[in-house]
Write a structure and sequence with these properties.
Blueprint lengths: L1 H23 L27 E8 L1 E14 L2 E6 L4 E6 L6 E2 L4 E5 L4 H27 L5 H26 L2 E3 L4 E5 L7 E2 L4 E7 L3 E7 L1 H4 L7 E6 L4 E9 L10 E7 L11 E16 L4 E3 L5 E6 L5 E5 L1 E6 L2 E5 L4 E7 L11 E4 L18
Parallel strand pairs: 1-22
Antiparallel strand pairs: 1-21, 2-11, 2-15, 3-10, 4-6, 4-9, 5-8, 6-7, 8-10, 11-14, 12-13, 12-15, 13-14, 15-20, 16-17, 17-18, 19-20
Helix pairs in contact: 2-3
Length: 376
Amino acid sequence: MRVSWLIAFLIAAAAVAWVGSSYIFPPAEETVAAGEEPAAVEAPPAEAHQPAVRVMTVSAQPMTSALGLQGRTIANRQTEVRSEVDALVAEIMVERGDTVAEGQLIARMAVQDRQARVREAEALVTQRQIEFEAAERLNNQGYRSDTDVAQARALLDSAEAALELARINLERINIRAPFGGVLAERPIEVGNYIRVGDTVATILDLDPITVAGQVAERYLGQIEYGTVAQVTFINGQTVPGVVSFIAPTTDPATRTYRVEVEVPNPDGRIIEGLTARLDLPIQQVEAHLLSPAVLNLSDGGEVGVYAVNEENVVEFHPGSIVGSNGELIWLGGLPETLRIIVVGQGFVTPGTAVEVQEVDEIPNRPDALTAVGDNA
């Protein structure tokens, strides 16, 4: 029994000595002077990481601002054709809605005694002509005075004037179109008795058609004659026109000025009274045509874009929206040429140094404008 106790005692003593050796003899690299704090071990420096972005170089372009007005189509010319004689309506040649040419016959009145008056005037002219020639011959022979010749000449002139008037009255029974257009109204029928001044027809000249709108005083100086405007009708049809009239006086009711745009209408399809929108060019500025996806707001609430300079450091450039073109917007107030961040702008701030990848167009993937990483 004593041998086994001795063996157990020796094993226990060896274990205690092994455990306590680390306190009696510490490792050389961990040895510190008494009373001193052990020095902190510094981690190796991490490699600096720069955000990756995609940029596109853009340049300013001339942009013409447009002023939108509500307008209405009106005939280029409109007239009421009136009778010049008292007579019965004998014949009508055109119907409402028909297209007529200048000088075309619209209606004819009854001749009545007008033809007879012409024949009577012709006969009187023949008589006066004979009397005048006879007076001249006798004057040459010394049998008639110069006064007699002058009197005969006056009677002949009077007869010729009466004949001309009779022929004019006869021609007045023919009602003709004063210019080409569309017969809008015809308030007469065969058998009606009309008097001088009564309306026979209303004619509209629709080529070109005129579109009229009202413009505020503050824009008046920015509109010029001959400027090409765009006219859009309620059915979506858009046609070009030319500014043909700017009113020199204001409408006292609205304090606005009338502006008219002429639109070619050779087939007459654009009729009077249609509602239309006028887009009038009023000024030209330099601006950038951009996707709204590249816009950002500064801390102060300014609209602008993030761009990178020559050192690939992010800068914020404020601008102002001056117009739109379909799904794109015109942003003014920017430098002429910029390297705009088109991918990754949501993950950078001004002053950030970035890794740049140049692209030729804005990616059209929805996630490409919001997600960015090392491989942006």
